[in-house]
Amino acid sequence: MLNRPVSFFVSGAAGAATLTAASAPSPLYPVYQRLWGFSAFTLTVIFAVYVFALLAALLTVGSISDRVGRRPVASGALVLLALGMLLFAIAGGPGGLMAARIVQGFAVGAATGTTTAMIMDAAPDPRAGSIVSSAVPSLGIAVGAVLAGALVEFAPLPRQLVFWVLAAGYLVLAALVWWIPERARPEPAPRTSIWRALLPSAGLPPATRPVFFALVPSIGATWALAGLYLSLGSSILSTVLEVHSHFVVGIVLGVFFAAGISGTVVSTVLPPHLREWFGYAALAVGVLVTIAAMLTGALPLYLAGSVVAGAGFGAAFRSAINALGEAAPGAQRGQTFATMYIVSYLAFSVPALAAGLAVERFGLKPTAIAYGTLEVALVLIATAAGITRSRRAAGLKAA
Question: For 165, phi and psi rounded to 5 degrees?
Fold first, then answer.
């Protein structure tokens, strides 16, 4: 068995790797569109079926690791994710892409809550657990975007190589997670209770519910913006900002999520009462800068706005992870984080799908600007909800 520091590292690597798959196809979407001639709406459907499969997994197997243990769920999900990568490599049209996205989405849905719980279980302390578990989505997505952009632009087999590489990595990680000790074994339960747990459901421990519902606007604001970058981001760069290098597209997409890691780190050194507000302020300012960049066609300004917005994404999401990790009982963390990701991926997919429909009618640039404006409004709602939650917590302490 692996010792605790190595277990923590492997858990973090598994968490990051599952999200690497989410962004790997993004730099390839313009290539697929030119090759097979499908519309912007079809593109967002390809993006959305991934999320719907992911939600199906979260609603069924998302919290099953609380009953059967983390290792079998995480390992099985990584093997399934490798299969999804192989389907991408052999895809011959939009139907093949949708099939690959469905398999990929179910695998990521099975893995996300489980790997987050594994990270928290293996962490040396809650602070380290919340930092790593909130940073790994940004790290994984950034690596996927940059790796795919580089391989598409410079390597042979531009539509296949990135997926072969990722498939091999997932199989290695699937083996490694079996060596992570089960830090908090679930209590034995009858076999029937496990099958009943596979029925579609979502839930939260009672003690976690007030914190969770207060954080819903924050979770929605962060992941709605991530959905824009991964669904229409490459099209915005190539069409609105006239970027024609796949590597540059991957870099710009990766910058947003890499900045999320820096936002996570910065939030840890700020005074506790400023961390959440830093995230919201950076999100709002960054999105406003990217709107200005699209209006003026300025790529450097868009890049700067992506950095600021990405830092806000990381800081705000870290605040949510930290609050939920503190509120959730250890034996029900899988359920808590699975429910969190249900909300995250609904925000990730539904606005992006609506944007795909809007592009067909209004065009890409007006849709992207309207999406950004709505994102700023959502950040303001999250800020108001955060202020209310802070006042309520202060009142309870005073009482």
Answer: -60, -45
pLDDT of 50-82, one tens digit each?
Answer: 878 888 887 777 667 777 778 888 999 999 999
* Domain 4-181+204-398 CATH superfamily: MFS general substrate transporter like domains (1.20.1250.20)
pTM (2 d.p.) = 0.75
Where b means 16+ CB within 10 Å and e means fewer, 346-367 reads bbbbbbbbebbebbeeeebbeb
8-21: pLDDT as tens digits: 999 999 999 988 98
Per-residue pLDDT tens over the stretch 178-197? 999 876 554 544 444 555 55
Q: Structural domain boundaries of the chain? A: 4-181+204-398
Q: How many CA atoms lie within 13 A of 326 on its CB side?
A: 10
Concatenate the DSSP letters of all residues of 158-203 into one string: TTTHHHHHHHHHHHHHHHHGGGS--SSPPPP--HHHHHHHTSS---
